[in-house]
User: What shape does this take?
Amino acid sequence: MPPNTTASTGQQPGKSGRKKGRKARLIVFVLVLALIGGVAYGAYWSVSTVRASFPQTKGSITLEGLSGPVDVKRDGYGIPQIYASSDEDLFMAQGYVQAQDRFYEMDVRRHMTSGRLSEMFGESQVETDEFLRTLGWDRVAKEEYEKKLSPATKKYLDAYAKGVNAYLEGKDGAAISLEYAALGFTNDYRPGAWKPVDSLAWLKAMAWDLRGNMQDEIDRALMTSRLGPEQIADLYPAYPYSRNKPVVQEGQYDELTGTYESGGTGTGDGTDPGTGTGTGTDPGTGTGTDPGAGAGAVDPGTGVEGASGAGTGDGTAGAGSGLEGQLSGLQQVLQDLPTAVGVNGDGIGSNSWVVSGKHTITGEPLLANDPHLSPALPSVWYQMGLHCRSVSAKCQYDVSGYTFAGLPGVIIGHNADIAWGLTNSGVDVTDLYLEKVTGEGYQYGGKVVPFTSREETIKVAGGPSRKIVVRETGNGPLLSDRSKDLVRTGKKAGVDSAAPDRGDGYGVSLRWTALDAGRTMDSVFAINRAKDWDDFRTAAALFEVPSQNLVYADTEGHIGYTLPGRIPVRAKGHDGSIPAPGWNSAYKWTGWIEQDELPYEFDPDRGYIVTANQAVVDPDAYPYTLTTDWGYGARSQRINDLIQSKIKDGGKISTDDMRQMQLDNSSSIAKLLVPELLKIDVKDPAVREAQKLLEGWDYTQDADSAAAAYFNSVWRNTLKLAFGHKLPKEVRVKGQCLWVDPVDPVGPAEERVKVRECGVREADQAQPDGGDRWFEVVRTLMEDEDSDWWTTPESGPREGAENRDELFRRAMVDARWELTAKLGKDIDSWSWGRLHRLFLKNQTLGTAGPGFVKYALNRGPWKLGGGEATVNATGWNAAGGYGVVWVPSMRMVVNLGDLDKSRWINLTGASGHAYNAHYVDQTDKWADGELLEWAHSEKAVEKSTEETLLLKP
Assistant: This one.
């Protein structure tokens, strides 16, 4: 067990490389005054102040509203297991306990989801609130609570809120969390009561970060300012189905019954699916499977051979620079939004796989899961167990796993009968629409339709309130109202002759499934209660947003996979890969894919199922287009290969084997490139010395590996030279400035004057990011050694390149001197972990302001192995640097043969209180790849318990 000592602070980063715009200004003024106030009040910042908010974890507390006693048993890591005799008591206690550990985090989250950050942090957050109010997450959550959710779910949400409010009763801010003490110096903010809708709205924030291909939709359009359709198609290659297997391999879609059946082989006609009707066999006619050029690239209705989505057939195909300007403005808005669980939707991934008992040592299934999300302090996940003393109609739960602070129930985990894991499916559930806007409304179907409008009042700490008007079209909220750039450039957007007269310009609206009220919260509780596969699939069908891959195992030996979600069916000719004309009814969503039609597997013959954000199903065997932008399957295929290598010749897999697979650091792009890099004739002795590091390297990216450090620098510089210098400023990293030809050059080439263009994208969102899409881009170009992509100009004394090997040589030179500057001249001192570091930051006070507050709240660094698109997915963005930008946010392995032999770990700890012993007490073990014991049975929980708190009615 860990020592019960105060968690120490760590070294702070010098400069993160990401300037956060509005987020960077978050409460800077507040914190400066807090610094002054802290000095003025002297003892206010004493040990007693820091400890004032630590929770009571022993003895007893009386809670009004309980019907019976509740035990809260915490192990040596502060992880609570709650025992109650009724559902309402169980969830009331869950609310109380989560508020004890994480209320500040919960409070910030609900202000984000409701667009009320300005109430806490002042004027700097007004624009963020305006955008979030326009999306209207809390309004949808209210509709769900009032009209959609079952009476039982509403009862549980009410009980949870009652528990949170019982904790808040009688406490001032400083007694709740240290952060409130800082806020209290400059404004009169006081936490308000928790409402059931506050829990529901968090599901919308989670869905936003996992929303699918909206970023790719924007990027494809932005690239048209510098790249032609064939070039854009090069950068979005087809998914390699023959090499990287999809999730579902043994099912079939029955054309006669219109349902998906598990097992067997497909019986369809073998055509390439289009957009909901099975059309689109010709990849050169706009709706094939290869996501090619974006809007404005070609004539309407036509495509590029080998590409798709190049035109819409009406209205936007010739949009050109005006549309690029609109979407650039939208991108600026999006990157300033606070993230919920991911990097604003970029880089989101996860691993989850399940192995049946015929391949395991125990003879029963093993299930692993590790979602890849932005690092946060505290972790986005909260571990706990919810146990009825006796499972009955009155008290139905015996479940343990990971949830979100602020949300009742368990999101990922197991009960006494089944286990489940989640990965993001990546299906396309968002579309952007151009809207013809006038003073009276918007054009649709040949006539002007009035907006649905509402007025919103934004309260601002330390200043006057602001009022905004939110306008919605039939497609959704008008996002362009929240961006001055979108309004300005919408007046100039280019369109083809089929489009209506521009008038006051074009707006941009968003159609997104999460803006329709749904029943995902019902699904959470139903999954928690499920006893078998049928229960599980029925419950999963309610998990409408975000659409997730769900893997399954049970104590009867079964394994399975299902794809739930509210997934739109689009009209012919519209695959969702580019913005569509909102005035044309032909581009509206025509319905939803029925649950019986969605792919699934149950007890496949191969005996295992892998989901890691790869394609769900082969398009030749399925009539609907789920997305044009899958992850490219580097991680999933590596997991498949690892499993196959273990089970060949009758081998068996253990719980620890599953853990070891989660830690696999192998780089698939290194396997492709290193043999070619070693063939390069290098003249410079210093570069040759670095090149020798790659000789005999096994392609694993361990933290202490010098070879991994050098290869990843070569990879980064290869991307920069081959692609980064050719991309438009809208997707390049902020601060990267290049002299380039004007977008619309005039006159002879020799007389053109270069213009200086600087990148505008944040470091963790810029391109080329080096993920597995770029693996595939480079793989497809390897045989074309004289491609224009392999050219780069000379720079000072460094030679240019006219072909692939010359560019590789240049990248090796640049990498050698980049690492010399960063790590020193002596290559024996190099290591990947010195470059690839994780800093954990408090997501509000720890990201800006005086250093003493950062020092108090933040932790790190940790030197990590792993990397981009590896199973151990400690992601980094090659355009922005080597720092870790997303991580396996937790890891678990569930042993269905003996649940008490399951293992788990969290990124940080149970507590959100700085200096509490459980603030980051799991992080060192997480970084080392260790897992903790995971007690579930009453006997095992009792054995692991170190502190017990009795909650009394």
The radius of gyration is 27 Å.
